[in-house]
Amino acid sequence: MIGFQCYRVDLGDRSYDIRICPGSLDGLGAAIALLLPSAKRCLVVSNAVVAPLYMARVRASLEAAGWQVIALILADGEQSKTLANWSRILDCLMAHKLSRNEPVVALGGGVIGDMAGFAAASYRRGLPLVQVPTTLLSQVDSSVGGKTAVNHPDGKNMIGAFYQPRLVWIDSEVLATLAPRQLRAGLAEVIKYGLIRDGAFFSRLQELMPGLLTLDSAAIAEVIHSSCRHKAEVVMRDECESGERALLNFGHTFGHAIESLAGYGTFLHGEAVAIGMRMATRLSHQMGLIDASYEQRVLEALTVAELPSAVPKFAPEAWLDAMGNDKKNLGSGLRLVLLRAIGDARIVDSVGADAITRLVASYDDPR
Amino acid sequence: MIGFQCYRVDLGDRSYDIRICPGSLDGLGAAIALLLPSAKRCLVVSNAVVAPLYMARVRASLEAAGWQVIALILADGEQSKTLANWSRILDCLMAHKLSRNEPVVALGGGVIGDMAGFAAASYRRGLPLVQVPTTLLSQVDSSVGGKTAVNHPDGKNMIGAFYQPRLVWIDSEVLATLAPRQLRAGLAEVIKYGLIRDGAFFSRLQELMPGLLTLDSAAIAEVIHSSCRHKAEVVMRDECESGERALLNFGHTFGHAIESLAGYGTFLHGEAVAIGMRMATRLSHQMGLIDASYEQRVLEALTVAELPSAVPKFAPEAWLDAMGNDKKNLGSGLRLVLLRAIGDARIVDSVGADAITRLVASYDDPR
Predict the structure, then answer these.
(1) CB neighbours of A317 closer than 8 A, spacing ≥ 6?
(2) Are both A210 and A321 inside the same structural domain?
(3) Which of A155, A177, A199 represents a domain boundary (last residue)?
(4) Which terminal CB of chain B, N or C, has fewer other CB atoms within 10 Å?
(5) How confident is the model at residue B365 (pLDDT cuts 50, 70, 90)?
(6) A249 given a catalytic annotation
(7) Which of A348, A121, A144, A366 is nearest to A250 (CA)?
(8) Is the pLDDT of residue B330 over 50?
(9) What share of chain B is helix, strand, coil (3-state, %, to 5)?
(10) B159/A97 CB distance under 8 A
(11) Could you report the predicted ipTM of this complex, rounded to two decimals?
(12) Is A288 left (phi over 0), alpha (psi -120 to 50) or beta?
């Protein structure tokens, strides 16, 4: 039997627990009641795919614990992560006049977590936020650490806030209903933790991968816990990404460009990050940090996880333009995360346009 | 001669200076350059009243210090403090692809400071923010402490963030071009500091008031500095209004209701707060905290400052509805700030509807 696991994210007066347990969705209401004893109402924000599967259970759990539940269901998918939908959440909070101590519960994947999180951050300058992630990607990454955002028409996650949740509640059993493609996309971020900070975990993942792809409970529990620990360790040292936290963006500047250039919805975020990690690995070699064999090791890991790795073709200027828009970049040159070993990454400032142009051109070369 | 005054707001890694000096607008560019040595561009957000008066000087000061200046000028007034205008600021930041280290400079009163502040807080999850307040109200209150917001159609300041500026730069000479009505509105917040936490300052204000109304430099400098100190002391103890900071809302729950019920723009914020402080003082008496004479002392102070004090007539249900929407209130009953002496206020929870109904009815009574 897989028991209850808890990891404490220690951020002073913004500290919170990540609780991981299969089947724990039914305990959510009582847990939030313990956390916020003086509140009576909550807003559950979900999407049209997750709500039919889990809203009834979540509502029952909340109501059994005495909560008055308001539900708001938005469209699914990255395309819905807009200021307009964020504004709909705010309108709903306004319509019900929620008070500063009444929580927003984000029930869904990264899109719902980011968007409901930014609404919770903004309404009355901040309501308590509870993350109930239902995708592997959000369970291992986006629900932890307090990054909330919506997309601007000209760039992903460009409008948002650093706003920590009060609780992250992970029921790994809900992955049973997750589309296999979404599960694999989540594995990209898991592989990322291995690549940037834990070589042993990267190796262990190769053993666990068959179990992960078939939702073996023990494998899933191990990977969620290790991933949350990695994410939390980084966030605790650098909450607002003034330094080390940027390492978590490994593959993401390329990934965001791929998502944007291909049109949001073509690639899942995790898929784009997978391709982006491959590109960042080759660039690390081209910039002299590692030898050429590393890209092959990354490719093998992506292949075992059944993730895409073929670099899509766009004009070099399109790559540069899309990457320059990525919010982690400073005024001159690109700030990128590069690999110097499996389990060891570094932030490199001022990567020139020529390096990017050479990189993307190298994928046109059949060698 | 009035020299340069500086007050440090100590909030750990979010600490910043408030610098107060007549004529200091021309030193702004160099000051920001010292603060943010690696940035090259900045966005100055202002309004159609302030920009013709001061944008050229601010631009010249910034350009002389090496800044590339982008300017965005919005309509003046509380009516323009909308999500739509906030979104225009974000669009402008996106169009110029400002980086995370490039600042937003808010040149204007509370509306510009709050709205540009929330845009700075939200774009890429936070850019450096410099407040250059040009009204007395923003110089003594809203530019300090990190409250940023825009209005929702159903409530004032309902959407925003706690986001501290990196610098507050106060040139008290700009008050020379401020409309006298706006100057008086700012005095309401100054009187508030006396009422809630400094009885000696409240008395001193009566002596200073003639000088303040005629913009005597020494009187203005003294009052701005004392007010910023009061504001900063409260904010340092309770940045996100979990307790003591709520004392600063003295008169504001009534004031916000008056602004909303009369239609935004009818009363200036400070005028509505003046009336609200009178009402809160009478309520403090009706709830047994002080004797009846206090309202007269508050009225006298408002009269000397040439502020309105007549309570406008609205239906009791309208008052209750408008006050219930105020974001400082918790689930049950109203949370209000009441007076227990001149210079001493307390937060009272769960003020019932009957108390409010009795209060507003008492102004219909000619006695």
Answers:
(1) none
(2) yes
(3) A177
(4) C
(5) low
(6) yes
(7) A348
(8) no
(9) 50, 20, 30
(10) no
(11) 0.92
(12) left
CA pseudo-torsion sign A181, A182, A187, A188? positive
Q: Domain holding A189: CATH number? A: 1.20.1090.10
Closest CA to A22 of A180, A226, A170: A170
To the query of whether residue A207 is one of the catalytic residues in this protein, the response is no
Q: Which of B197, B230, B231, B278 is catalytic?
A: B231
A123 CB near a chain B CB, below 8 Å?
yes
B83 at A interface, C-beta within 8 A? yes
Query: A312 to chain B, minimum CA–CA distance in Å?
Result: 25
Q: Would you call B331 and A94 a contact, using CB atoms and an 8 Å cutoff?
A: no
Domain ranges, residue A61:
5-177
Domain boundary among A154, A177, A200: A177
Residue B239 tokens, joined: 């940045």
Catalytic residue among B252, B278, B282, B328: B252
Test the A interface: residue of B13, B97, B240, B241 with most A CBs within 10 Å: B97
Q: Is residue A219 part of a domain?
A: yes
Same domain as B45, residue B162 = yes
Pairing of strands A167-170, A16-20: parallel
Q: Say if A367 falls within a structural domain.
A: no
Q: Is the same domain home to B24 and B166?
A: yes
Catalytic site includes residue A325: no
List of chain B residues whose C-beta atoms are within 8 Å of the C-beta of residue A330: 38, 99-101
Mean pLDDT by 10 residues, chain A (367 residues): 82 96 96 96 98 98 98 95 98 95 97 98 98 98 98 92 98 97 98 98 97 97 97 96 94 94 91 98 97 97 97 95 65 87 95 95 77
Nearest-CA distance from A43 to chain B in Å? 14
Among the partner residues A122, A126, A162, nearest to B126 by beta-carbon distance: A162
Please tell me which residue in A78, A249, A278, A282 is annotated as part of the active site: A249
- Test B87 with A90 for CB contact under 8 angstroms: no
Residue in B40, B126, B162 nearest the CB of A125: B162
Closest residue by Cα to residue A39 from B185, B331, B131: B331
- A161 and B126 within 8 Å at the Cβ level: the answer is yes
pLDDT digits (tens, 9 = 90+) for B147-186: 999 999 988 899 999 999 999 999 999 999 999 999 999 9
Q: What is the pLDDT of residue A326?
A: 54
Spatial CA neighbour of A324 closest among A224, A254, A239: A254
CB-facing half-sphere around the CA of A81: CA atoms within 13 A: 27
pLDDT-based confidence at B96, cuts 50/70/90?
A: very high
Do residues B299 and B328 both lie within one domain? yes
CB contact under 8 Å between A147 and B125, yes or no, is yes
Q: Which of A156, A184, A230, A252 is catalytic?
A: A252
Structure tokens at A12: 């002073």
Residues B289 and B199 in one domain: yes
Distance from C-alpha of B317 to C-alpha of B261, rounded to nearest angstrom:
11
- Inform me whether the C-beta atom of residue A367 falls under 8 Å from chain B C-beta atoms: no
Q: Are residues A112 and A230 in the same domain?
A: no
Domain contains B367? no
Residue B252 annotated in active site:
yes
pLDDT at residue A154, rounded to an integer? 86
A19: tokens are 């609780």
Q: Are residues A241 and A164 in the same domain?
A: no
Residue B172: which CATH number?
3.40.50.1970
CB hemisphere CA count around A184 (13 angstroms): 19
Run of H or E residues at A16: strand A16-20
Provide, as residue numbers in chain A, all residues whose Cβ is less than 8 Å from the Cβ of B36: none
B283 assigned to some structural domain = yes
| Rounded CA separation A193/A222 (Å) | 13
Q: Which of A94, A102, A149 sits opposite B158 (nearest CB)?
A: A94
Q: What does A223-237 look like in DSSP terms, one character per residue?
A: HHHHHHHHHHHHHHH
Same domain flag for B233 and B314: yes
Query: Domain total for chain B?
Result: 2
